[in-house]
Structure formats: C-alpha cells, structure tokens
Amino acid sequence: MISSLLRSRRRAARVDPLAAWLTRPVISIGNISMGGRGKTPLVGLVARLLVEAGERPAILSRGYGRAIADDGVTVVSDGHAVLSDVAHSGDEPLMLARAVPGAAVLVCEQRALAGTLAETALGCTVHILDDGFQHHQLRRDVDIVLIAPEDLTARVMPFGRLREPIDALNDADLVVMDGGSNVGLAEWGTAGLNPIPAVLHSPNPSLRRAVLVRRLGAPSPSLSPSARVFAVAGIASPERFFDALTAAGWTLAGTMGFKDHHRFNAADARRIGEEAARCGAEAIVTTSKDAIRFEALGPWPVPMVEMPLEVSVEPAEPFRVWLLESLRHNDDRRVLGLTPHQEHQR
How far is the C-alpha of 194 from the C-alpha of 242, rounded, in Å? Predict the structure, then answer.
C-alpha cells in the first residue's frame, strides 16, 4: 500500500505543472534510502569537476540541521568568499562552501528560489541540487542516485530503510553504487529494474592522501600516520570514517560516533577529551563536517585535527566525460531557448 502511494506520487510529480523550471541546467544528487550514502561528498566532487570545466556551479541545499532558519535565501558562499556561519547555513553547506572554491552555495527550503537568485545575482551557469531525488518542486535535467547493494532487496519505510520503492531508480540518469561494490545485470533485473541507466560506477570513500588539513585553533601538528588517534564522527555512518582511517594506515586508539548533524556542546567536548586521554591518543581526528561544529569548543587535551573524507567515482574519466556531455546537451537546449518540458514535446 505504501509503495503504491509513493509510486503514484512520483508519477504525478513527473507531470506536475506547478513544478518550477530554472533557466540553467539542474543536476540532482540523491538517494532512495535513509542514512548516509555519500551524497554530500559526491556533490563536492561534481562541483569541483564543473569548476575545473569552466562552469560556475551553484549548490542548492535546504540546510538541514541549521540552528537559525532565516526567511528567504541564505547565501553561504558567492563563489568567492564564505559569507555565513554554521548556525545560519548548516554544517554540510558550510563544509561545501569551504571545500569547493568557485562554487556558490545557497540554502533555502524553496530551492527554486535559491536557484533563481544564483542565476540572476551570482551569474551561476549550472545548479547542483543536494539530496534532490525526492524534491519534486524543482525540475531537474540530470538525476544521479546513490545506492548500496542492500538497497536492492530492502523494504520501504516504516518496514525498512527505503524512502521509496527500488523501482524509483528507473527515473535516474545515472546510478552510483556506494562502497566500491558493483552488482551484475542479473541482480539488477531481479530487483525489477529497467536496464542500468548510463554507466554503473562506484564511489569509494577514502583518505588516500591522508593529509592533516588543520589543527583546530592552531597550525597543523606534525603527526605520523602510525600515531594512535581517537576518531570522532557525527555523520550518518560514522563507521565509514573509522574504516577509512584504518584503511589509510592510522591506528585507532578508540572511536566515538554520534548521530548525523549532532550539535556538539561543552559536555560532549569534555567526554571526548576524557576518552581520548584515557586511550592514550596522540590526537583527536574528526571529519571536515564535524570540525565545523567543534570550532567553538575546547580546549582539548591533545590536538584536534580535521581530516577530509574523499569520494571518488570509478572509473573517473568516463564519469567526468558523461557529466560534461550531459551538461553540453542542456547547453544546446538553452541556446534554442527550450525548457526540458518543451524539448520533450518537440
């Protein structure tokens, strides 16, 4: 019953005359399950590829978890400078604003409004809709959806973790398999899906460069990758960060995970510091996303260090080519002055 209702909702959204169109192309990055699938790191990767290609992307986010939700649009970054703080932007938009120079980042529940501002005031040439697969109020030109192998056999909420039935993937332009795993055509067909859209890729969360970006409040310390560290993460799947640290050669003296978008406070900081000291850790290591919320806290008994969790899509070059070709197709549509809906009618 629930699956049928969700399918009906998606069918209605395809032809909703009230859904907004933006002048510039919209690339949506989303998923179909609850929990982390690496959407935000993939948004950052796509934004960097677009900047390198000479585009001026706008990242459109609803700013989930921000403490202060102002009316209208919050410009977190105009593509040149960071203009907001974590309370008004949320942790992920601020992280993206810092991580991708050249990309504008805007926060608003009405993302069509944010996109219009990005085009008219900031000169943005393409939009990236963060967590947009279920955001039907704004039309998109490209839908990239991240899944994990277990999603193919999972159930819809409240009986499982899927936001909508697995056959919603038939609306995707590209499906990216999370965690470095691929599924075969037989498994895909067993799930009741059409032939795989575009190419099936694999994002692999990693810390291959193992670079200590900064020590919070001080210059980066000299820390050997063999050092014992205490890892802290408040992301959807903290174990992804812990596993990536281990795979990169770090020795974990201990770990502490929190729920996604956790608002760390002084009590959390004391508990983290005490546990790190008890484990004999030489440093506390956290994600870039969490580091934003730790900046106002401390002091720490050992250095608190931010470590970036990178994501790649393999094979990298076919993915880059596919992305830019999809954008060029929509550049041609813009030259003709057509919306995607008008193009479909031709």
Answer: 35
275 contacts 230 by C-beta, under 8 angstroms? yes
Q: How many residues in the chain? A: 346
CATH 3.40.50.300 location in the chain: 2-204+312-345
Q: State the amino acid at position 210 in one-letter form.
A: A
Please name the CATH architecture into which domain 2-204+312-345 falls.
Answer: 3-Layer(aba) Sandwich (3.40)
- 8 Å CB contact between 280 and 252: no
Under 8 Å between Cβ of 29 and 131: yes
Give the residue with greater pLDDT, 256 vs 203.
256
> What is the rounded average pLDDT for all residues in the chain?
82
- CB-CB contact of 161 with 34 (8 Å): yes
Q: Helices marked H in 53-108 — which ranges?
A: 86-89, 91-99
Question: At a CB cut-off of 8 Å and minimum separation 6, what does 234 contact?
Answer: 257, 258, 259, 260, 261, 262, 264, 287, 289, 290, 293
What is 214-307's CATH number? 3.40.50
Q: Which of 69-78, 231-240, 274-283 has the lowest mean pLDDT?
A: 231-240
Amino acid, single-letter form, for residue 205: P
- Per DSSP, the three-state class of 114 is helix
- Whole-prediction pTM: 0.83
